[in-house]
Design brief:
The chain has about 180 residues and is an alpha+beta fold. It has helices at about 1-20, 50, 65-70, 80-95, 105-115, and strands spanning about 45, 120-125, 145-150, 155-160, 175. The strands form 2 sheets. A 3-stranded antiparallel β-sheet has the order 3-4-5, with helices on one face.
């Protein structure tokens, strides 16, 4: 009797997992091709307001045309607001890739993932954005590449070198979710 009950519970868990795995999720792009059909190469997808950034208090939303990213390095803003925007872009990535979490690697690798080098080809930061340097790194308002410290799949601390442009000094500013 115990083994039958255990088998029924295991079957229910497998069915629940398969049902959950097949459901559309926010930020997940669904294929319109029938199963087994050859699909054309994916073109980059520009994040729409629904996909881009969740509503977060104090964080500007990225809208079609990257309105929120236009506020990055705005003259009437500050580094704290810039770091919130960068964190919001990372949150949008996590939302779109819940099983994978944050992009990892060097600044250039993380920026490439945010710029469309991901399995959905989802573009959260356009390649021509003024906050990107020639090496493809996301930079702070003083032109120094941000330092990304991936603490876990869900948590990345972003650090700016500050006005002295030297990392690990007293004027550095960091933001963690």
């Amino acid at each position: 009797m115990f083994w039958r009950l255990l088998l029924v519970l295991a079957g229910l868990l497998v069915a629940l997992y398969l049902w959950q795995w097949g459901r559309p999720r926010p930020g997940r792009l669904e294929s319109t091709a029938p199963p087994g059909a050859a699909s054309a190469p994916a073109s980059p997808t520009v994040a729409s307001p629904a996909q881009a950034l969740p509503d977060s208090p104090g964080v500007p939303a990225v809208t079609e045309g990257f309105e929120g990213l236009r506020a990055l390095h705005a003259p009437n803003s500050d580094i704290t607001a810039d770091l919130r925007i960068v964190q919001a872009v990372l949150e949008a990535f996590r939302t779109s890739f819940p099983a994978e979490g944050n992009p990892t690697g060097s600044n250039a690798e993380i920026t490439a993932a945010l710029a469309g080098a991901n399995r959905l080809r989802l573009v959260l930061i356009p390649r021509g954005h003024p906050a990107l340097n020639a090496d493809g790194e996301l930079c702070d308002r003083w032109g120094t590449p941000y330092f990304f410290h991936s603490e876990s799949r869900r948590r990345t601390t972003v650090r700016s070198a500050g006005p002295d442009r030297r990392m690990w000094t007293e004027d550095d500013v960091e933001h963690a979710p």
